[in-house]
Amino acid sequence: MKSNRRYPKAASGPFEAPPEEFVDQEDRTIEVKPYNGLDSEFEAVVEMYTEFDPSDRAQGIPPKKEPRVRSWLENLFDDDCLNVIAWDGNTAAGHSTLVPDGDGDHEVAIFILRPYQGAGIGTELTRSVLGYGEEHDISKVWLTVERWNHPAIGLYEKIGFETTRAESFDLEMAIRIAAE
Predict the structure, then answer these.
(1) H or E element: which one contains 33?
(2) What's the alpha-carbon Rg for the chain, to the nearest Å?
């Protein structure tokens, strides 16, 4: 299936694929790694989402209650999606996923736990998931973001996303990460 979504003509990047380690702006050592299916990883990400601040939820995600979080993650952690987790020791500080949209493109979602926001983790996690996607031959990625979420919009623009649709409460942004 061919998408009718607009993408920038020029590719952004290259982006480094995980694993990677960096020191965030709060002097914490953060390790970004692909999800590898361990029960302990799954439980840590469930815990991250059950602790998620309700004001940080957008477009109905992540779900609020633990059973719904588990079901939602089981869908995201299937073989069709690519998932990257930012770790502060054994604590999942952030999660990003690339989800196929049925048109041959991928939607990206990025979530950072409130105590880790504003420390550069979102930028590194986004770059890392794009690198992971590039490594898996994904070239077109899009997202939606609430138009009043200026920090997220600034982050996405800094990385290379461009606004492709601005007709509602949400902006649609897209990036090309590999030349076709």
Answers:
(1) strand 29-34
(2) 15
Ordered per-residue pLDDT tens for the chain, 180 residues = 456 789 999 999 899 999 999 999 999 999 999 999 999 999 999 999 998 877 776 666 788 889 999 999 999 998 899 999 999 999 999 999 999 998 889 999 999 999 999 999 999 999 999 999 999 999 999 999 988 889 889 999 999 999 998 877 889 999 999 755
SS3 140: strand
Location of structure tokens 């380690």: 21
**Taking Cα atoms as reference points, which of 14, 48, 24, 44 lies closest to residue 124?**
24
Whole-angstrom CA distances from 16 to 7, 36, 124 are: 21, 18, 9
Q: Give the pairing type, strands 140-146 and 106-112.
A: parallel
How many C-beta atoms surround the C-beta of residue 124 within 10 A?
A: 21
Residue 88: in which H helix or E strand, if any? strand 82-88
The pTM of the full predicted model, rounded to 2 decimals, is 0.92
Coil, strand, or helix at residue 138? coil
Which letter, b or e, does each residue of 80-91 get, where b requires 16 or more Cβ atoms within 10 Å of its Cβ?
Answer: ebbbbbbbbeee
